[in-house]
Amino acid sequence: MTDQLPINEWDLNKTAARRDKYYASSLTRFTPFRDPIVFRKGQGQYLWDTEGRKYTDLLGMNVCISVGHSHPKVVAAAMEQAQELTHCTTMFYHPTPAHLAEELAATMPKGHEWVVHLTNSGSEAVDLAMTMARTFTGNLDLLALRTAYHGPTAAAQSITGISGWRHPGMPGNVAFVPEPNQYRGIFGPGTQPYLDEIDRTIASATSGNVAGIFVESVQGYGGIIEMPTGYMSGAAERVRAAGGLYIADEVQSGFGRTGANFWGFEADGVVPDIVVMAKGLGNGFPIGAVVARKHVAAPMAEKFMFHTYGANPTSAAAARAVLAVMKEETLQKNAARVGGALLERLKDLQTRHEKIGDVRGKGLMLAIEIVSDRASKTPDRDATTSVFEACREQGLILSKSGADQSVLRMVPPLCLSMDDVDQTAEALDRAFQNL
Ligand code: PMP
To answer: According to the lineage, what is the superkingdom (predicted)?
Structure first.
């Protein structure tokens, strides 16, 4: 927190007051710090506020910053494109989104034909995938996981399981299955009972013919809940037996974030029918995508599939640069290496602090779950808030997540360094000592 930026005209209190007065959004949930912060600058994994204080962004601005804040190559690509032609609708041809589509298709499992539809956001991609699955299968019923979050739009809300993140009155035809949470899932650790429950749910809570199941390979807002070995492939098998599709929501868990694989679903060898992505794809530029097997997309594409900004060349140029930088800077490898080191440090903290109930995740998608005591596993929301605030005072931006808001989520830019790991572990250690 030493680097000093010139104090400028940005008045923190006026900005905070203006924002609180005019923004219609869940401020208390998503700006949970006691005092406001106005960020002015970002570079790599760091942010600076208006007073020149430096922070390590372990939230990755909500998992959007994959290759680093304001990465010069991504910014340059978007600027060049915007100067030449900012927007060109899908009705016409433009090489940039067409190249991006080819590059995204190439990241998918080999031996299948993949097609791409670009959107502005994750929830638009989720909505589109829902309609695509229903159109292709001719079935209405969808399955989703109880602690899933799939977005704020009405359709995405209908498959969001966490009640605190879902409004009443959303569209129906959705049945929820229990998440295979290895720490506090209703069937304890393991995979099979959770798969059996998918069969039971299809038989008891749907028409018997389903359109598909949506699965986050590692649940994000749900509290970094990784699907155990065999769950994704087993879920796909069961749902396909009932006529449905396997839809991977990779909005948080994709783009090399989990280290070992580029896509989270690869961990289990499952070949999805549809993959939904956003966030890290644009490194902060608004873009999402549905990547689907060609025959699955065909019936919907023939009828109607169009977004005004669906193939926006400026966002597409940024996304192409993100893919190139991921390779050039071997960021997936870095996520595995640095994430592995951070996980070890978090596990070490767990041996010394009773309130750390669980440490989990992989690559740079990690979490600490905070409990009142390990025996009862009672979520400790107040302690989570205290640790979160104490970390902010030490220059670390984290995020609270999980259905009980007692999970500290770490999803930084994939360029996090070993020095950042030390700083994070030390800051967390001090925060837990002072609880
Ligand atoms: N799916 C997942 C797994 C997400 O985490 C989110 C956003 N947090 C979405 C979908 C929705 O994305 P967006 O907010 O870009 O609409």
So the answer is: Bacteria
